[in-house]
Amino acid sequence: MLSCRARNLRDGMSHIARLGISACLLGERVRWDGGQKRDEGLLLACAGRVEWVPVCPERELGLGVPREPIHLRAGSAGVRLVGAESGREHGAAMAAFATRRSRELAAADLDGFVLKSRSPSCGLEALPVYDERGARVLSEDGVGRFAEILRRELPEIVCAEERHLQAPDRREAFLARAAALRRGKRFFAASWSIVELREFLRAEGPLLDAFDPRAGAELEELLAAADGSDALARSIRARFARALTLGDPTAPPR
Ligand code: SF4
């Protein structure tokens, strides 16, 4: 027999989530060398549960396929995004593109995003940062320029690199969060009463607590003050989303 937590996780995963994805992970030939990085295992595991929204920042920016590879390079004014051979500057154009595209994606109602690791545009962490001449690696703590702005612009979605979604328990934890975020958005977008809000949070409670043990008590406090005002509804919605987006979104539930 399934435990309450397992049941909520399973139920959390029975709903479709809409996830952005680095287009090369879907098999689109958009990489700098004209290749792709289809992640067959991930796509198979998510089949029927996820609607994918592909994005290739470098191609959409107009850099072409194939193109000169780009990388992160240290500079006097911070880390730059430049052509690996030409040194051509792409940082400002990528920042403008990423801000605009992230806002479009917010309107596209995403619940999360799967990003290609080790990409100077899509990677979320641990990217090589080269010295000013691009000759040697100074550090391994760079963040992809598109990924950095996406996270800033869309704080209420879950983002993870594909390499962290290979283990089934981490992948399922990520999908459960994304699916719960979707249910939350649907609930709060419709008209609801305080009684319905209580029912909704009671149903989601075990899942939220599994990811954020303080969420239940804090939501209870907010609920106790529930007066139907828009401000309180926004606080409850924000706390609900925070329980699902705080910390490592691939961490299995406690
Ligand atoms: S990692 Fe990102 S920028 Fe690079 S090919 Fe894939 S989708 Fe495009």
Can you describe what's shown?
The protein is α/β, with parallel strands linked by helices and 254 residues long. The protein has a domain of 150 residues. The strands form 2 sheets. The protein has a 4-stranded parallel β-sheet with strand order 2-1-5-8. It has a 4-stranded mixed β-sheet with strand order 4-3-6-7. The N terminus is likely disordered. Helix content is 44%, strand content 15%. The structure holds iron/sulfur cluster (SF4). Iron/sulfur cluster binds next to helix 3.
Low-confidence stretches: 1-14
- Which shape, going by the Cα principal axes? elongated
Elements, N to C (H/E): HEHEHEEHEEEHEHHHH
Q: What percent of residues are in strands?
A: 5-15%
Largest sheet: 4 strands, parallel
Overall SS class: alpha/beta
Q: Which radius of gyration do the C-alpha atoms yield? A: 20 Å
Side-by-side strand order of the widest sheet: 2-1-5-8
Q: Give the cofactors and ligands.
A: iron/sulfur cluster
The proportion of residues forming helix, as a percent range, comes to 40-55%
Number of strands: 8
Query: How many angstroms separate the termini?
Result: 19 Å
Mean pLDDT: 92
